[in-house]
Amino acid sequence: MSNREFDIIVWGASGFTGRLVAQYLHTKYGSTLKWAMAGRSQSKLESVRAEVADNSVPIITADSHDEHSLDAMVQRCKVILTTVGPYGKYGEALVSACVKHHTHYCDLAGEVPWMRKMIDTHHDTAKASGTKIVHTCGFDSVPFDMGVFYTQQQVIEKTGQPAGMINMRVKAFKGEMSGGTYASLGDAIEKATKDRSQFKTLIEPYSLNPEGEQQGPDQRDLQRVIYDKVSNSWIYPFIMAGINTKVVRRSHALAGYPWGREFRYDEAVMSGDGVGGRIKGLIAASMLGIVMMAKPGSLLKKVIDRFLPDPGEGPDAASRAAGFYNLRFYATLHDGTIAMAKVTGDMDPGYGSTSKMMAECGVCLARDATPDVAGVLTPSVAMGEPLLKRLQENAGLTFSCDFEGR
Ligand SMILES: NC(=O)c1ccc[n+]([C@@H]2O[C@H](COP(=O)([O-])OP(=O)(O)OC[C@H]3O[C@@H](n4cnc5c(N)ncnc54)[C@H](OP(=O)(O)O)[C@@H]3O)[C@@H](O)[C@H]2O)c1
Questions:
Q1: Phi, psi at residue 24, to the nearest 5°?
Q2: Domain interval for residue 45
Q3: DSSP 100-144
Q4: Are residue 149 and residue 239 in the same domain, yes or no?
Q5: 80 C-alpha to center of ligand 1: Å?
Q6: Within this chain, do residues 330 and 211 fall inside the same structural domain, yes or no?
Q7: Is 260 found in the same domain as 152?
Q8: For residue 290, is it within any domain?
Q9: Does a structural domain hold residue 177?
């Protein structure tokens, strides 16, 4: 793979998120990185390139419906970053091409049934060929997967033993959804309502674990508003928990259960203490419930669609810069005490921060000495320590841990 023409190709560079990934690579790495912008439309790519980069960045055309174009594209680079979604609709041909031609792959998929399908179809072949197929390289699920990886590292270093349980609580965040993400969410919900097995994959806690290892102590994600003694706050369901918690559990399984078979992990959002915190939690949970329950084709869904962006649209530069996130990982230690790790991001989670994380995953796979493991992987298993370093040095994330009281 060392003699490939490009380190990285960004496929989907004409879309909302792909353009941000391209802009970041151009600004951060310029000509020190060999990379190209790809998509299905030459003219769209040229106009995006004029806005976010310059003519020195090559353009490649490849369409998800044209296998030959994908084969030709993936053979030219070490790593493909794809923002062509919904992945359940457009993604599989690219994964197949990457496995076939031994090209590492990163996406922003949050579509759990599709990721399960990729594991079943491609894990063994990718493992045998030494190819890393890495889903969830954006806000879902890098800060969470790497947050647990980091927290356990700190706990083991300090106490000599891993934490038996970690509860991730979103303390605060600010950010909006793009049309592409909304389309992917809608696609996943529509498929799950039609197909019982996809619905099961969405709700079962261990559904991304290897075959035969889909049992464990964790229950389904939180469905209601409760008072949480660990964070001393009311908590409500987190929209990303259904993806992140499964990714963290897959990481643990792929790593060989270093934190013990009884390790538990969950996620929720904090809404504060007292009556105000409870009311805030109830309002947020109700709104989330309405968006998730709106049936495809229903009047309610049509009304919601009118207020949300179309594919290709998303938050502007000012909103992205004004965004942030602050996550807390409460780790229960073997003596019953609780340590707290924090992970923060300096831009809106979905786009500003996501595009930096995805780009750094690509550079990490192309350049760094990553763990000697292959297959359909998670970010922490595929990249581990070198990614943790990059996220802190380049992508605006901070990781810290406090053992002295939360
Ligand atoms: N996990 C996260 O944190 C996170 C964050 C952001 C986005 N996402 C996901 O990333 C994906 C993209 O989101 P977005 O907002 O950037 O969407 P978008 O603006 O709609 O971009 C989609 C891209 O896919 C391209 N495309 C569509 N059909 C294609 C085909 N048949 N062959 C080749 N390219 C094709 C589009 O090309 P044209 O420009 O030619 O139409 C465009 O470049 C979604 O699945 C979304 O859920 C995830």
A1: -65, -45
A2: 6-139+354-387
A3: HHT-EEEE----HHHHHHHHHHHHHHHHHHT-EEE---BTTBHHH
A4: yes
A5: 14
A6: yes
A7: yes
A8: yes
A9: yes
Q: List the residue whose alpha carbon is closest to atom 47 of ligand 1.
A: 181
pTM (2 decimals)?
Answer: 0.95
Residue 1 CA: distances (Å) to CA of 4, 98, 367: 6, 12, 12
Integer CA distances (angstroms), 275 to 225, 228, 345, in order: 12, 14, 29
Q: Could you tell me if 381 and 338 lie in one domain?
A: no
Q: How far apart are CA 167 and CA 187, in angstroms?
A: 29
Work out which ligand 1 atom sits closest to the CA atom of 65: 31
Q: Tell me if 392 is assigned to some domain.
A: no
Ligand 1 probe mutation, 9, 40, 191, 354, most atoms within 8 A of CB:
40
Tell whether 127 and 256 lie within a shared domain.
no
Same domain, yes or no, for 26 and 82?
A: yes
Q: Which residue puts its alpha carbon closest to atom 13 of ligand 1?
A: 180
Ligand 1 pocket, mutate which of 9, 14, 17 (most atoms under 8 A from CB): 17
Looking up tokens 């049509």 gives: 302
CATH code of residue 366: 3.40.50.720
Give residue 111 CA to ligand 1 midpoint distance, Å: 13
In the reported structure, the alpha carbon of residue 41 is separated from the centroid of ligand 1 by a whole-number distance in angstroms of 13
CA distance 145 to 248: 5
The mean-pLDDT minimum among 133-142, 291-300, 367-376 falls in: 291-300
Give the burial class of 225: count Cβ atoms within 10 A of its Cβ; 0-12 exposed, 13-18 middle, 19 or more buried: buried
Ligand 1 pocket by Cβ (under 6 Å): 12, 14-18, 39-41, 44, 63-65, 83-87, 90, 108, 110, 138-140, 178-181, 184, 311-312, 314, 350-351, 354
Nearest CA to ligand 1 atom 4: 108
Q: Is 1 part of a structural domain of the chain?
A: no
- Please write the tens of the pLDDT for every residue from 191-221: 777 888 888 998 999 999 999 999 999 999 9
255-266 pLDDT, tens digit each: 999 999 999 999
Residue 97 sits in the same domain as residue 155: no
Q: Are residues 295 and 150 in the same domain?
A: yes
- How much distance in Å is there from the Cα of 84 to the middle of ligand 1? 4
Q: How many domains does the chain have?
A: 2
